[in-house]
Amino acid sequence: MKALFTRYRLLFFHLIFWTVLISYRLFDFTQYLSIQQALIFFGIPTALNMCISYVHYFFILPYIYGQKKVRRYFVLLTFTLIAFLYLRFLSDHLFVVHLVPEQAYYKSIHLARVLSVLWGYLSFTVLTVMIKLAVDWYELENKRKQLENEKLSAELKYLKSQINPHFLFNTLHNLNYLALSKDATASDVIIRLSNMMRYMIYDTNKEEVLIKEEIQYMKDYIELEKIRLNQSFTLTFEVGENVGDCKIAPLLLFTCLENAFKHGVSDKQKSWVTVRLRREEETFHYWVSNSKIAQPSTNEPSGFGLHNLRKRLTLHYPMSHELQVEETDNQYSIHLKITGIV
Question: Contact 291/327 with Cβ under 8 angstroms?
């Protein structure tokens, strides 16, 4: 269907071009000649120009445009020009000479006349080729954008698949910890984990989710961490007005929060996490700060979550986001700003 639409569009461009040209030239010629004379003086050359343009367009141009056979292209073009030169001179001899018998221009073949006819043929041939090139460029650009969108979609799905196992590892580790300690809050943990799994399975496949849904997911995660860490950290969680009804790509906000708990909270050290969300007109701000704690040596790659966050932001908000990361001796801060969010 799309290819058929493109063909009709190309045909439309050609019809518009010839309609405008013929209408203007016919109007011009009929100011001084009868309609019959105008059709002979203008109609025959125009018909030949159209014929050679489309002979070249359909039968000669493909040799160089698709097959890259340059020699064959120029040989065929030369023979075609010679054949149409003969047709033009023959038509002038049969029809035009009788209308203007006093004009010596049409009674002989000379260099100026040959160059004039060749110039007309080549001009119209180039114009029709330019239409084809313009339409082909438009189609190529559409295909390029389509492939780019498909690539972005595939990369987003890949990045989400990387996030899911990482998250499951952390939450199952928390649940295992509570089960081993026979904590009475294990039932509450299972319910919250169930809610989080429902969000992971159904909502993260969406292109965007409401921020309030992501916030609820984050709060469930925080409650799980509170139980595991025995409330041994200080939390500040502030949500501004008109934030929850905005939409955002799923798990973007959670990635920053998860990193904060992973690298900035411990039940053996004094630690804290601060989360703030605010909307200013169409600009969304998200701050996450956490204390820095001594990390035990591990073989797990560092910076995995932040690396994924940067890639997802680039893919989903290529020209409308800003991510600032600041690190001091005792704290780590992230400020995410997304413009145009609604």
Answer: no
Answering whether pTM is above 0.70, one says no
* The two structure tokens encoding residue 128: 């029709």
Q: What is the pLDDT of residue 134?
A: 81
| Strands 271-280 and 233-239, bridge-based pairing | parallel
DSSP state of 279: E
Q: Which residue type is seen at 35?
A: I
Q: Pick from 218, 195, 285: which is nearest to 246 by CA?
A: 285
Contact in structure between 61 and 129 (CB atoms under 8 Å):
yes
Which DSSP symbol is given to 320?
S
Q: Which of 107-116, 218-227, 328-337 ranks highest by mean pLDDT?
A: 328-337
The strand pairing partners of 276, in sequence order, are: 238, 287
**Cβ atoms 335, 183 nearer than 8 A:** no
| Amino acid, single-letter form, for residue 200 | M
**CA proximity to 164, closest of 193, 201, 207:** 201
- Say which range, 120-124, 162-166, 233-237, 241-245, has the weakest mean pLDDT: 162-166
Alpha helices in the chain (DSSP H): 2-29, 35-38, 44-55, 61-65, 70-91, 97-99, 111-180, 186-198, 211-228, 252-264, 304-316
Exposure string over 42-55, b if 16+ CB within 10 A, otherwise e: bbbbbebbbebbeb
C-alpha dihedral, 260 to 266 to 271 to 275, nearest 10°: 30
